[in-house]
Amino acid sequence: MKKLLAILLIAMLVLGNVSVAMADDDPFASYGKFEMIVGHAQPEGNPRYVSMEKFAEDVAEKTHGHVTVTVFGSGQLGTEKEMLEQVVQGVTQGMRGGQFDFSPRLLMFTAPFLTNTRAEVTALLQSDLAKKVCAEAEETTGTVIINLCDAGGYRQFSNNKHPITKPEDLQGLKMRTNGMKTIDMTFIALGATTTTVPYADLDMGLKTGIADGQENPWVNVMGMKFYEVQKYFTQVNYQFHPDPFYVNADWWNQLPEEFRTILSECATEMGEYNDQLIDENSDAAKQTIIDSGAEVYIPTEEELKAFQDACQVVYNQMVDEGICTQEEMDEMLAIVAAAK
Q1: What number is the average pLDDT over the span 61-81?
Q2: What letter would DSSP give residue 254?
Q3: Displacement of CA 216 from its chain's centroid (Å)
Q4: Which of 1, 201, 276, 328 gets the highest tally of CB atoms within 10 A of its CB?
Q5: Residue 231 has pLDDT above 90, yes or no
Q6: DSSP letter string over 190-231?
């Protein structure tokens, strides 16, 4: 009997030690499980797609599997506007993309020809001004922006009619936009007309002539194979777009504080990786477009200045439209001027 009791005691001690070891291995054992569904519009291989996969893996590892991130790319959950509506409504937990319908103040960073280098873009997106604009999102939309990175690199013009070498070449062209005011303002300042086509429908819109041309970064053009339906490209680097990572505020705020910290850190690493991938892949994407037989025109400094001068009116329009104040416009220009 004593022997049996001794065996039972040893077994209890062993099981107790196992339980303690398991708890030590998982510091979040008592926190429960959380699921995060995130949507975006970019196809496999795009920097947004690749960096979102990294985010999901990092979160799973650092939360010991307590937060599971499931990413639906390639517009599987709808258009960017529809995906953002899903996040606002709490149907899904997150969305990444240049969708500013519910946070129009982010448009201030899309002023044409505002920046010229990665350092300038990074300085803007990490500025106190950017943090202030992101903080406004929770109050106005019920979302939290946990990262702001680059949506794809500098954006270029393309069309099917003729090469664009000067602003006058845009006159009479019907250019696709995603509905962003600053894109519309820019094309109108350059003499074009605009039509709104969702990103997922753009390939068909260009094939069928709904639009003569479009604007997108090289990595997007390659990933979506727009070069198969566009003949003439012009490297103008006229805009970059912020890429906000929207998260439903109610879901976010009910996470344990440790998990919010981990997700924020993973989102920062994701954004840095995303921008690195853009820089590494842009030239290769442009070469793919050239190799396809499409024409890529690179304006001289003098030619580029003609585009920049024609777009100066947009800066005043942005202030008049309430996208930003004159003080904020001046602040952005100062941030860019100080960037190294």
Answers
A1: 96
A2: T
A3: 13
A4: 328
A5: yes
A6: TT-EEEE--GGGHHHHHHTTS-SEEEEEHHHHHHHTGGGS--
Phi, psi of 72 (to 5 degrees): -115, 105
CA distances from 17 to 6, 77, 210 (A): 16, 46, 69
Residue 273: how many other CB atoms lie within 10 Å? 18
In Å, how far are 101, 169, 170, 210 from 193, measured between CA atoms? 21, 12, 9, 12
d(CA 325, CA 320): 8
Nearest to 156 by CA among 335, 282, 246: 282
- Residue 67: partners with Cβ closer than 8 Å, 6 or more residues away: 33, 34, 35, 36, 59, 60, 255, 259, 262, 263
Facing residues of 297 across strands? Answer: 234
- H or E, element range at 141: helix 128-141
- Tokens at 69, concatenated: 């991130």
Q: Could you tell me if 219 and 153 are in contact, meaning their C-beta atoms sit under 8 angstroms apart?
A: yes
- CATH classification of 155-240+283-338 is 3.90.180.10, yes or no? no
Stretch 74-102: mean pLDDT: 94
